[in-house]
Write a structure and sequence with these properties.
This protein has 229 residues and is an alpha/beta fold. The protein has helices spanning 11-22, 36-46, 62-71, 87-96, 108-119, 127-138, 150-155, 167-177, 182-189, 193-207, 212-221, and strands at residues 2-7, 27-33, 50-54, 77-82, 100-103. The chain is globular, with a radius of gyration of 18 Å.
Length: 229
């Protein structure tokens, strides 16, 4: 069962989400919180797998609550839900540790798919949003191309932060930082998608990263890749 915690200051919204999610086999809504502070407490108490978190709430907002939950090293993945499609909310949510971002105007099926994705350990961002994230973290040039080729990266001595990665895993990280999907990585490396999934999982595990979108952020923040100047 996927255990789900709902955190939203509007009771009707929580009730609607519970109705949608409870209809999906394998989902169990284990708790509800009316603000971020209560959400942090219930996350520690109930140990959910996925937390559906509103952004704007009284007492403690969703961003602060997400930071607290992720800092506590809980295994829960946080799905941020908002009525506003704003870049500041998006980037703040990702920096706080959220693994997904979904507008409340989304269809019920999209909410169900989002929870499934986070429960599997994936991140949930559309390709368009992923490109916005890469452009933001790649720097002011707006270029989404890495500054080094895969061959150049492998020819150079590995960065101390990458010594635990195999060559294939380093290649995979570089391609993730370019925003490639698993299918695109598989084509570029001439391997199957199942093999790519294994490489991605190994990269996340060895680097202690929550999901693939945070791998993109990590790669730019640690200078593994950089925008072309």
């Amino acid at each position: 069962m996927t255990r789900i915690l709902l955190v939203d200051d509007q009771a009707l919204v929580r009730a609607g989400f519970e109705t949608i999610l409870s209809s999906e086999p394998g989902f169990d809504v284990v708790g509800q919180a009316k603000d971020g502070a209560e959400g942090v407490r219930l996350a520690a108490e109930l140990q959910p797998d996925v937390i559906c978190m509103d952004v704007q709430m009284p007492v403690m907002d969703g961003l602060e609550a997400t930071r607290a939950i992720c800092a506590a090293d809980g295994h829960a993945a946080v799905l941020m839900l908002t009525t506003f499609d704003r870049d500041d909310f998006l980037f703040d949510a990702l920096s706080a540790g959220a693994s997904g971002f979904l507008l409340k105007t989304a269809e019920p099926e999209q909410l169900i798919d989002a929870v499934h994705a986070l429960a599997r350990g994936d991140a949930l961002l559309s390709p368009e949003v992923t490109r916005r994230v890469i452009e933001r973290f790649a720097g002011a040039t707006g270029s989404t191309d890495a500054a080094v080729t895969t061959g150049e990266m492998l020819a150079a001595p590995p960065s101390p932060v990458l010594v635990d990665l195999t060559d294939r895993e380093r290649e995979t990280l570089l391609l993730l930082a370019r925003g490639r999907s698993n299918a695109e990585i598989a084509r570029e490396l001439f391997v199957g998608e199942a093999t790519v999934k294994t490489h991605v999982s190994n990269v996340l595990l060895k680097l202690g990263i929550r999901d693939r979108i945070h791998a993109v952020i990590w790669a730019y923040e640690h200078g593994v890749v950089a925008p072309r100047g």
